[in-house]
Specification:
There is one protein chain. This protein has 364 residues and is α/β, with parallel strands linked by helices. It has two domains: 154 residues, Nucleotidyltransferase, domain 5 (2-Layer Sandwich), CATH 3.30.420.40; 170 residues, ATPase, nucleotide binding domain (Nucleotidyltransferase, domain 5), CATH 3.30.420.40. The protein has eleven helices and ten strands. The protein has a five-stranded mixed sheet, with helices on both faces. Strands 8-7-6-9-10 form a five-stranded mixed sheet, sandwiched between helices. The radius of gyration is 22 Å and the shape is globular. The protein starts with 7 loop residues before the first helix and ends in a 17-residue tail after the last helix.
Length: 364
């Protein structure tokens, strides 16, 4: 495999020269996926639906701020994008000239972060003279279930999907790969954001969701009762829960300064039990009213072990066909972008070089 310099200009200049002396003999379809919507720089190569590589570079710089700082995220993406893509290609054993298309997250996400991935993908598409494919980030979380190596079981259409992340909480009716309808979504905070904000109130490090999930295993979920919001249809709301936890802890700490420290596991378990109850009530309502008993989950919060256990218990009790992706395909990754790109490639659904990042990008 050819070796190219790590700086952007030299990378594309030498790539163009390399292409001039190479011939293409395509027997398979190979797609490079690029993800940079938030604070993960990721690249993946897929060959006829099978993942050959899936590389993710995380950004630890945000931990000290208790959340993602957009400017720092975009700078880190600029530093990471070339080595991450280069590593993904090398691990897959694929020369850039052997790619058939490049797929990239076009939204939703942070504007600066998206701009880095989209700009790089457009440059690569132009240099290689291959199609460019724009991918909806949340749609990709759902389509991660169609990565061939995830399972021999694939969801059959139609199915219900619940997407859970730091920016989104949705119940989606999936009629086909790219025919999706949002039945309900959060009215305020997303579930991942609620986890992180409550964890911050409790004094836990960022990201807080995994910390609450870890502590919850050691606590009593019935120790404390928090309110479940009453919102109509399939909509979600988590801001009230966050406020309820804040006021509850302020009162308890005033009475006993060591209350949080002394009850950390029980608090985590009680918060987690409430969040899972909110999610499960809405999901069960959707299954009952649509009659669709095939359910898939996706997004970073789908890695939550408490939620996974609740879903599996429900599936066994009510004969629900549950699809849960492996952990590596739950948080932001490029494998899901690559598989969505592959499915779009088969349709001939390509973007032009006028593709622009879409920080706000509704899922239709």
């Amino acid at each position: 495999m050819a070796n190219f310099p790590s700086d952007g200009f030299s990378y594309f200049y030498n790539l163009k020269r390399y292409m001039l002396i190479q011939s293409k003999n395509k027997k398979v379809i190979r797609i490079l996926g690029i993800e940079s919507s938030c604070d993960e720089t990721a690249a993946s190569v897929i060959e006829n639906g099978k993942i050959l590589s899936n590389i993710v570079a995380s950004q630890d710089v945000h931990k000290e701020y208790g959340g993602v700082v957009p400017e720092l995220a975009s700078r880190a993406h600029q530093q990471n994008i070339v080595p991450v893509v280069d590593t993904a290609l090398k691990k897959a054993g694929i020369d850039p000239v052997d790619l058939d298309a490049v797929a990239v997250t076009e939204g939703p996400g942070l504007l600066g972060s998206l701009l880095v991935g989209v700009s790089f993908a457009k440059s690569l598409s132009l240099a290689l003279d291959i199609p460019l494919i724009g991918v909806h980030h949340m749609q990709a979380h759902i389509l991660a279930h169609f990565i061939r190596e995830t399972s021999d079981r694939l969801p059959g259409f139609p199915f219900l999907a619940m997407t859970l992340s730091g920016g989104h909480t949705q119940i989606v009716l999936v009629r086909d790969y790219f025919d999706m309808e949002v039945l309900g979504e959060t009215l305020d905070d997303a579930v991942g954001e609620a986890y992180d904000k409550i964890a911050q109130i409790m004094g836990l490090p960022y990201p807080g969701g995994p910390e609450i999930d870890r502590l919850a295993k050691e606590g009593n979920p019935e120790a404390f009762r928090f309110p479940v919001p009453k919102v109509q249809d399939y909509a979600f709301s988590f801001s009230g829960l966050k406020t309820a936890v804040l006021y509850f802890l302020q009162k308890k700490v005033k009475e006993n300064p060591g209350f949080i420290r002394e009850n950390m596991a029980d608090l985590a378990a009680s918060v987690q039990a409430t969040i899972i109850r909110i999610l499960m009530e809405k999901l069960k309502k959707a299954v009952k009213e649509t009659g669709i008993k095939s359910v898939a989950i996706g997004g970073g919060v789908s890695a939550n072990k408490g939620l996974r256990n609740a879903l599996l218990e429900w599936a066994e009790k009510d004969q629900i066909d549950i699809f849960i992706p492996p952990f590596e395909y739950t948080t932001d990754n490029a494998a899901m972008i690559a598989v969505a790109g592959y499915l779009k490639y088969l349709k001939g659904d390509f973007a032009g070089l006028d593709l622009i990042p879409k920080p706000r990008f509704p899922l239709h």
